[in-house]
Every structure is written in structure tokens, then in C-alpha cells.
Amino acid sequence: MRHLSTAAMIVCLYLTGMRPQEVQGLRSGCCPDPEDGGRHLIRSRHYKNVTDDDGQHVSAGEERDVPWVAITPVVRAIRVLERMVPEGELLFSSAHHDFVRGRQFNGALKNAGMNQRIESFVAWINREAEFQGLPDRGVPEDPHGAIGLGRFRRTLAWHVARRPGGLVALAIQYGHMRTVLDARTSSGYGSRSRRGIHSILDVETALAAADTAARLRDRLAAGEKISGPAARRAITAAVQVPRFEGRTVTQKFAKQAADYLARDGLVLFDNPDASLICVFKRDNALCEPGPDATAPNQFDCRPGCGNAVRLDSHATELLEETDRINKLAALSPQPLARRLRIAAEQYRATADTHHATAQPAEDLS
Question: pLDDT at position 223, please?
Fold first, then answer.
């Protein structure tokens, strides 16, 4: 029961983006089944920057103006927790989660206790994996120390910031509407409570751009050729960006990340779904970014954009995709097969254009 509740806690922390104290404040009944068949919503309390009329911090917090969007694993985790506590009780009530001794504690489990449960859960996973003969399913030791509560909120941001359309996924899973609300200029809830996730996204996006620049340098140094209208800008951007081997994220670093992303025309964004690198410049972008955007709409990447560059490895990916689509077309009904073959020819034509126009980096420098 202890490990089961810990697993549910990890799911809630990881797949909602809630802060630990917000998860600790959840109560049974916080996520009712929608009547209209829509999304599950979590009504919860938040605590950061909550003050009274005199400016004093309110330790009890207040209910969020905007609910969290709950995806299916989170809903299932909450349903498990609701079977462990009485109706209306805290989902992580200390009294009801003391399964062995049944001591009558008050309030929710504390941070230290929840961290201990995570460590115990990891140890149990590793013992069970070893016992079942599946050592590769264990949780490896983390060189940065124990897995604490605060690390879940940022881990998923690291991944989604490195994928096209990542901000859309974040809006769904974390409940942060960066794709809808600009927290730097909006009023009300958006500007009051979304500042933290913006700095996280800026840091992760900047680091992802630096990673892209490093990979571009390595591939050009290995002899790959480059093509595209933004090839010279890409080479310039790659040379100017330092290689990041790891960095402690501070408020100052978050400001530096935001300043770095504001360098219009010299920031590199990898787009593996389109097999290209975008050297983002607002005036050239065909993906219709906002007037103050510092990143492209990578899910709406369009052919012929003046920000695109490709390497030999991108052309190879396009040809591999061409072969895959043609094999699929051979097994598809005629109308669908015709559309698939048209798409395959477009991929092949793009690869051929790269090979016909690509140049070594030295010729463009």
C-alpha cells in the first residue's frame, strides 16, 4: 500500500506539473468525472504568491482560478488514492497513509517523508527487478543524488522543450497556457502564477538550441555538407554558441537564457519531424509566429521557408522515409496509395535538392 501510494504520488507530480505543496493539498473528489465527456479537471489549491489584503502570505493558499488538466494516468492515480482515504480527506493524509502503525497524524505527508517514500520505492523496484531477472528494468543510481519531489516538475519540461510542438504538450499535461497566454504581458492568473514555467522553458529551450548548435558543428567538422537559404547564418550561429557541459540553473542564468533566445536570426532549433534545422528569424518564418516570438511553431513547419537548413544526414533521413512510405503504399488501397506515393516523391525531391545544392562549410564561411 505504501509503494502503491508512492507510485500514485509520482504520477501526479510528474504528469501534471504541480508543485509538491499543491499535490499535498489535493483532496478526495478533486477530480470528478466530466458530465459532458470532456477532459478531467483537477480543482486544487495553490500557495505561491498568495497574500491577503495586507500583503501577508496566506499559508492555507487559495483555489486556483484555472484547474489542472488531468490526463488518464493521473485520473487513475487519483482514483487509487481516493480508495485509501475517506471522502473529502486529503489524498496524502498522514493519518491514512501510516499503513503499518495507524498513528493519528494531522495534515498531509511532509516533504521529507514523501522523499523517503520515493527512495524506498526505488529500492523496492530494484529488488523486484533483480528477483524477476530483469536488471535492465531497475532505476539506475542518479549521479546528482536522490530523486526528490522538486525534480519531477522540471524533468518533463527538459524533454518537451526538445520536441516540435512541445509547448502544446505542456499546455495539455502541465496546464500552462503558454501557447494561449503570454504571461509576460497578460493580467490576472496568467501573469501571477506562470512566471516559473516560463523561466524553465526559456532555460530548456536555450540549452536545446545550444545542443543543436553543438551537433551542427560536429557534423560539419565530420565533413557533412549543408544546404538551405539560412546556411551561412546557421554556421555563424553554431560558431558563436559555447558548448554546454552542464550548468546550475539560477535566476541569473534564466535571464541569460531569455536574452539568448531574443537574438533574432541566430538561434538554432532542431526539427526532427521535418528533417531540418530552423535558424529562426521572425521576418522570414512561414510558420506565422507571433510578433514577439523567440521560437518557431515547429509543428507548422512549411516547405520553402527562408530559415531552413539541411545536412547530409537530414537528406539520408528523407530518403529512408521515402522507402518506408513506398512500402506502405504497396500495401494500401489505391486512393491512399496514390497520396502516399506523392508524399514519398516530395521527400525524395527535397533530398535531391539538398544533394544538388549542398556545400562544405568552408565554402560558405
Answer: 94
Checking if the pLDDT of 270 tops 60, the result is yes
C-alpha–C-alpha distance, residues 102 and 114, integer Å: 17
Residue given cell 516547405 in the structure block: 303
pLDDT at 198: 61
Number of neighbouring beta carbons within 10 Å of residue 170: 22
Q: Residue 102 CA to chain centroid, in angstroms? A: 39
Q: Counting Cβ atoms within 10 Å, is residue 259 exposed (0-12), middle (13-18) or buried (19+)?
A: exposed
Cα dihedral across residues 85, 90, 91, 96: positive or negative? negative
Of 107, 139, 104, 109, whose CA–CA distance to 121 is shortest?
139
Least confident window among 14-28, 168-182, 342-356: 168-182
| Spatial separation of the C-alpha atoms in residues 186 and 184, rounded to whole Å | 6
Whether 9 and 117 have beta carbons less than 8 Å apart is answered as yes
Helix, strand, coil % over all residues of the chain, rounded to 5? 50, 10, 40
Note the pLDDT tens digit of each residue in 178-206. 333 343 333 232 333 344 556 666 777 78
Q: What is the pTM of this model?
A: 0.55
**Residue 141 cell numbers, joined:** 543510481
Residues 6+ apart with CB under 8 A from 109: 24, 92, 93, 94, 97, 117
List residues bridging with 63 in a β-sheet.
Answer: 45
